[in-house]
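cache lookup: miss for this entity combination. No prior model stored, computing from scratch. Input as submitted by user K.M.:
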Amino acid sequence: MTKRILVTGAAGFIGSSLCERLVEDGHRVVGLDNLFRGQLKHLSALEHLEEFHFIEGDAREDSVLDTCEAIYGGFDLVHHLAAINGTRWFHEAARDVINVNINTTLATLAAAERWNARYVFASSPEAFGEEELMPLSESSASSFPSAHQHQRHSYGGSKYLGEVALQHAVASGLDARIVRPFNAYGSRLLGDDYGQVIGMMFQAVASNQSIQIHGDGSQTRCFTHIDDVVDGFVRAGALDGDVVENKPLHGCSFNIGSTEEVSITELANSIKNAVDDPDVRVINTEGYHGDSKRRVPDCTSAEHLLGWKCSTSLETGLKRVWRELNLQP
Ligand SMILES: NC(=O)c1ccc[n+]([C@@H]2O[C@H](COP(=O)([O-])OP(=O)(O)OC[C@H]3O[C@@H](n4cnc5c(N)ncnc54)[C@H](O)[C@@H]3O)[C@@H](O)[C@H]2O)c1
């Protein structure tokens, strides 16, 4: 059935691919983004389609959400992805990260309640803070160090509080779900100084510079291809019913991640393989405070309740990204 869907953060890395997939699936989509980090070129395939509307504006503002509402007279589903993301921002602009991430979530939760819409929140494994017990399950505890040590958890803390606000809305009757993508990557991932690791490594190779590893490179991550991440959001938004397998669905959280755990040093070597250039140099630089040593998901709920499965290996995904980057004008 065709749904009216609002995607916030629509011009961003994940949001733009999510909009494409939702339109492809036959839905009517409004994409909202203030272009803080998003880029309109990501939405170029959608711009002339009747089923897609883009609104430039701030998701914290009710007047902007009213403008979105006016397009279809409300929404059946909200995918809330607008946020300040990118590790360097967490340290440099901690108060902005907190302000934007928390207030966009509060405003869109309230709007979803007004519209009687289902709500999907893009949280993050960083909502678990520096929890060391792996794998991270849907119900792992969150563990945050003293805030005077560093400001990295402006981001994870904002996602944690977003989850708290969501659970409060669920208790008041909202049908809401949480998606936690584990290190998404794809050809739209930013590779500038405020970008994320795979984007930065490919950008270094493309500009004939050394790949930089922050810290000693022993920290591990599970990198998840954008198509798998988008599929997780779509499934989380599409699943109907109040109870699935005896678990209440409202308030349910889904870890969406590959379980292929690789160190950042191994990642750099995989990128060298993907670009087929053994001469690319790899150097170690200063690490980020609060960077977790490991981040491994347990995706049991996503697999059982959503029927989600990670289908792209890191090797295949990295080769695909490099091919796509080389096709871009
Ligand atoms: N990329 C990942 O690996 C990853 C992992 C976990 C969680 N997430 C979450 O998924 C979501 C999307 O991430 P992404 O990687 O696409 O990041 P992104 O930065 O590419 O996308 C976020 C978008 O939100 C927009 N935005 C920022 N402030 C806004 C505001 N006040 N109003 C409207 N739009 C605003 C930005 O311009 C940007 O386009 C974010 O909420 C992020 O925290 C991403």
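stored under new cache key. The first strand starts at residue 4 and ends at 8.
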